[in-house]
Amino acid sequence: MARRLPQGGRIDRARPIPFSFDGKALSGFAGDTLASALLANGVSTVGRSFKYHRPRGVFGHWTEEPNAILDVTRDGRREPDARATTVYLEEGRTLAAASVNAAPDAERDRLAVIDAFARFLPAGFYYKTFLWPRWGLFEPAIRAMAGLGRLDPGWLPAAPAAPCNRACDVLVVGAGPAGLAAARSAAEGGRSVLLVDDRREPGGVLLWRGGEVEGQAAEAWIADTLAAIARAGGTVMSDTTAYGVYDHGLVCALQRGAEGAPDRLWRIRAGHIVVAAGAIERPLVFADNDLPGVLSAEAGLAYLRQYGVLVGERVVVAANNDAAYPVALALREAGAHVSLVDNRPAPRLRRLAEDGGVAVLAGERVVRAEGRRAVRAATLASGARIEADALLVSGGFTPTAHLYCQAKGKLAWDDALLAFVPGAPVEGVSVVGAANGVFGLAAAVAEARAAVAVPKSGGAPAARDPAALDAAPAWPNGDAGGRAWIDLQSDVTVKDVGIAARENYASVEHLKRYTTLGMATDQGKTSNVNGIAALAAATGRAPGEVGTTTYRPPYVPVPFSAIAGLRGGERMNPVRRLPLEARHRALGATLGEYGGWLRPAYYGPGDMTEAVAREIRAAREAVAVFDASPLGKIEVIGPDAARFMDFQSYMTLSTLAPGRMRYGFMLEETGIVFDDGVVSRLDENRFRVSCSTSHVAAMHARFETWRQDQFDPARLFIHNATTHWATLAVSGPLSRLLMERLSIVADLSDAALPHMAFVEGRFAGGPATVARVSFTGERGYEVSVPAARAAELHERLLAAGRDLGVAPLGIEALMALRAEKGFVVVGLDTDGTTMPHDLGFGGPRLKRTGDFVGKRSLFTQAAEAADRKQLVGLDTVDGAPLPRGAHVVARDGGRLRSEGFVTSSYASPALRRPVALGLVARGAARHGEEVTLRHLGRELRARLRPPCAYDAKGDRLNA
Amino acid sequence: MQIFTCPFCGARDETEFRFMGEAGKQRPEGGRAVGEAEWAAYLYLQRNEKGPVREIWMHQPCGELFLLARDNVTHAAEPGVGLRPEGA
Amino acid sequence: MLDRGAFWTASPLPGNERFAARGVEIRVVHGLSQVLVSGRLGGGAGPLAGLSAPVGFRGVATGPRYAAAVARDRALLVSTAPLDVSEGWDDEAAVAVTRIDDGFVVVDIAGDGLADLLAAATTLPPDVATRSASVVFAGLPCVAYRAGTPDVLRLHVERPLAAALAAWLRSV
Question: How many angstroms separate the Cα of A155 from the Cα of each of A20, A570, C24?
Answer without folding.
Answer: 20, 18, 31
